[in-house]
Fold this protein.
Amino acid sequence: MSKTAANESVALTDTPSGKKLDYPLMPGSIGPKVIDIRKLYGDTGHFTYDPGFTSTASCESKITYIDGDEGVLMHRGYPIEELAENSDFMEVCYLLLKGELPNKAQKTKFERDITLHTMVHEQINRFYTGFRRDAHPMAVMCGVVGALSAFYHDSLDINDAHQRMVASYRLIAKMPTIAAMAYKYSIGQPFIYPRNNLDYASNFIHMMFAVPCEEYKVNPVLAKAMDRILILHADHEQNASTSTVRLAGSSGANPFACIAAGIASLWGPAHGGANEAVLKMLNQIGSRDKIKEYVTRAKDKNDTFRLMGFGHRVYKNYDPRAAVMRKTCHEVLAELGLKDELLDLAMELEKIALNDDYFVSKKLFPNVDFYSGIILKAMNIPVSMFTVLFAVARTVGWVAQWNEMIEDPAQKIGRPRQLYTGYTKRSYVPLNKRG
Ligand code: SDX
């Protein structure tokens, strides 16, 4: 629990009553201090008003730090660029969950523990037959992940740290399996079981693209790119889906239900659904000569069209993940010897947008979703699976934040208030007296 800054506070004058009130300033290790307003309502009878929580810290956390102005993203103090360059997804999962990079023995044991949880209960296979083949795979993910609580009764007690960790490992381990099963079901191919001799990213690719009829060799360049994409999407402070998981968890809901809630929130095109929306947008634009028309539309308040993959609530500078993603994009396309006209279109769109005063003045830079779709398309991942992949990666962030929330002594059930602007009290009008 952060200590308040020595004698630092923010003074408020409650003009109706003239009362002068001081609220302590709490410093973080870095980043903005917070005004501790927990006593505000009791002192003044007023609520704060902050739709979208643009100026509100919902919790204290030690997991991820973002500086939107500087384009900084760190996990447990390690810059995302260094992790993307030198680490791997399993190591980043350990770091997010436990707070430190693992030593060799810890890393080997963690990888083994995750590997041994990658299979799902055999009866879970039957859930899939209840869905239409053309169901959006995110709908399948919401349903199947929520249903895990019907199977793993020995990891539902959120007050038992061991059970919380077992549930966390199970979720990290099983998400790729469940995701790949959703894809296989959509194309009418048999499910492929996880392989214990493959690393996490290779296993996911293998479950997605192998068939029982022949050996499937995972391209190591694609596996490395997939691993890097997973790292870049692993956690991101108190974004919409993570806040959803925390809020669901604050009521004591079981971990599988909380992660299913996070998946539902991530699905939105303003959030994790943006990578799918970027590809749809690039296909809609179609050619370079149409870019200016669409950039104009994106600036028009009366037009609902937005440049998907641009802008961010926190980053008012280039999203550091987008920079790494852009580099990986070129590496993958070069390795595959692929020329991708959508990438060319994306590069041209980025150049035009970043020279347009509207985007520059509103600090709308490409975000993590702008390039990820192009890499995934080059890897033959279907567009409908893009957000599923984001959910696979973000599961470790969700469970790390969920554990931190439960262990936080200051945590209580999340229950925001409101500014009520509806009718004041009025009497019931019998049906025969209504107009
Ligand atoms: C993710 O929170 C996270 O950390 C999320 C994420 C994570 O890892 O968890 O980083 C992942 O969700 C990335 C964002 C993916 N979404 C998109 O790419 C969708 C397109 N972007 C926009 O929908 C928007 O930028 C948001 C939702 C990302 C951010 O919205 P904000 O912070 O609420 O900003 P805003 O809507 O208030 O926009 C500020 C201004 C507005 O104009 P004005 O009303 O001030 O005149 O910028 C405009 C907006 O109209 N604007 C855009 C725009 N994004 C914002 N105009 C055109 N195109 C855009 N993409």
The pocket of s-citryldethia Coenzyme A is lined by residues 52, 236, 239, 270-272, 274, 298, 306-314, 362, 364, 367-369 (CB under 6 Å). The beta strands are 9-14, 19-26, 34-35, 64-67, 72-75, 78-79.
